[in-house]
Amino acid sequence: MLGRSLVPLHPLHKAVLLCLVLAPFCAARASSHDWDYQESHSDSRDFAPGGTLHVRLSVGDLNIRRGDSNKIALHYTVKSRHERNVKEAHVDFDVHGNDASIEFHATSHSNTSFDVELEIPANTNLDVHAKVGDLTVEDIEGDKDLELGVGDVRVVRGNADYRLVQASSGIGDVSGDVRGNERGEVSGWLGKTLKYHGDGKYELRAHVGVGDITLERK
After folding, report:
1. Does domain 35-128 have CATH number 3.40.630.10?
2. Model pTM greater than 0.90?
3. Per-block average pLDDT, block size 10, for the chain (218 residues)?
4. Nearest to residue 148, comparing CAs of 79, 60, 218?
5. Is 133 helix (H, G, I), strand (E, B) or coil?
6. What one-character-per-residue DSSP string does 85-108 give?
């Protein structure tokens, strides 16, 4: 039997498909003002500069900024319309040498959200994957691999200069300074892609399915 040839999806069809896949998460995000129950928690772990932090989050806003100590300081608030969902939500926070991971877990289809604040050593590599929410990274040196399904990504550059920047949005805009007044090469129509090669030390890779990416100077 002859196989069927695959026909590439039109960009608009890709956009519709992506929105359908992420619809449950978008619904949870849209109803965030209806939270009836919430709890806040804090934790911290020793972590030497130069390591890598992995973060996994489904729904919620995540703010990562430079701390003033060799620790990862975590503060988060879990929110839901049902008390049981708040009680069952939990976070796995593990540090092994120069490698750390933080994973946020909630009951499936529970419309549960996490608002997260992280303070980390100035020189920390970041590997962040989130589904719905806004992601902000402020004044952190090191390599960055940032991926977000729906929401906006904002990276504020302090002293970090990049040798490579690859930032893209499936549906949305990509803009901002990558070094001084240099803005890199931006291309695309429905979504944008920014590429930049410089003489810095670090690499920044960022992608958002639906939303904007903004690169700023401090």
Report:
1. no
2. no
3. 39 50 50 74 95 96 95 96 92 96 87 95 97 96 96 87 92 78 59 86 95 89
4. 60
5. coil
6. HHHH-EEEEEEETTEEEEEEE--T
Residue ranges of domains in the chain: 35-128, 134-218
Q: Which amino acid type is present at position 15?
A: A
101 touches 29 (CB < 8 A) = no
pLDDT of residue 199: 85
Q: Which residues contact 69 (CB under 8 A, 6 or more apart)?
A: 121
Q: Which residue has the tokens 């129509």?
A: 189
The structure tokens listed for 124 are 């920390």
CA 46 to chain centre: 23
CA 37 – CA 46 distance, rounded (Å): 31
Q: What is the CA radius of gyration of the chain?
A: 18
